[in-house]
Amino acid sequence: SNSKIEELEKRLFEKICSDISIHLEALLKTSYAISLMDVFYSLSRIASERNYIKPILNNSDTIDIKSGRHPVIEQIVGPGEFVPNDTNLSRRFNQILLLTGPNMSGKSTYLRQVGILTLMAQIGSFIPAESATIGIVDRIFTRVGLQDDLTKGQSTFMVEMLETASILNQATEKSLIILDEIGRGTSTYDGLAIAQAVTEFIHEEKTLGCKTLFATHYHEMTELSERLDRITNLHVSVSDINGEIVFLRQLLPGGADKSYGVHVAKLAGLPPKIVGRAWEILAMLENNKSSIASTLNESANKPFQTQMFTYRNWLEEELANTDIDAMTPLEALIKLQSLKDQNKNSN
Predict the structure, then answer these.
(1) Domain ranges in the chain?
(2) Model pTM?
(3) pLDDT tens-digit readout, 262-291
């Protein structure tokens, strides 16, 4: 009957478990050995197939990688298509690599690449590069990507600040910090102020001073290298021919001259009318950055054209004498409302 079959199955199962338990320790050791063999075989096979090299590990404060490649992206783009880049970081020089460049140019890929290669080297793996000497780091901290946490009522910017604070409170001089566009989740001036303050803290704090990669769209931050001697500016090169851009993916010394945001919007397929209007607004904002609101209102109902003559009314005078950089967002809104009311009364 079924009950007898079930009873027999139960006795056989219990006997098997009993027999296995006698050899449990040996089985666990065998399983562990097999898992190690699997890991070592996988790493060695990948290293052989993809021309990885053996990195030199030491206790120095330097990360020196020649022609490093991202181990995942290079497989996606195909053989010979990935553009390798060097990395030279040290607490004594090049402590902070400040990376600027257009959207989609490869900044985030480079940041992740350095973190992954450092980790691969420290777990005993060969890495995709021509050569590498890597000083052991105690931890790798990353703040990359945008996300919010609706379950905790935390905005994207709050999550960004919490993670940045956690990094700065836990990192040591032996750590590697990777930061991707800190401060972009808030207003331009607040974001720039936070990004610069974080960079200065990492550079100047005696208990920190660790190797750092910092990607940013705030081109103003490139000026930090003029007064902080361990900051080095790098940018991702772009070919711009008659408004058509090609991402070259190569890191070069110095800061980027612009972000090419409108170019990327065009590549993404935004309607030509929007792209054209964006070019008009961008040109006017770059010519008059201190009066953004006035520029947008003035240009809303007429096509972009070069002004042959200038005329300054009371509103233009007031805006010219207003120091936007020294105002908080709330003060700027109050000032804007005041000007709006005065303009209404004058008409």
Answers:
(1) 2-47, 52-260, 270-346
(2) 0.74
(3) 888 888 888 989 989 988 888 887 776 544
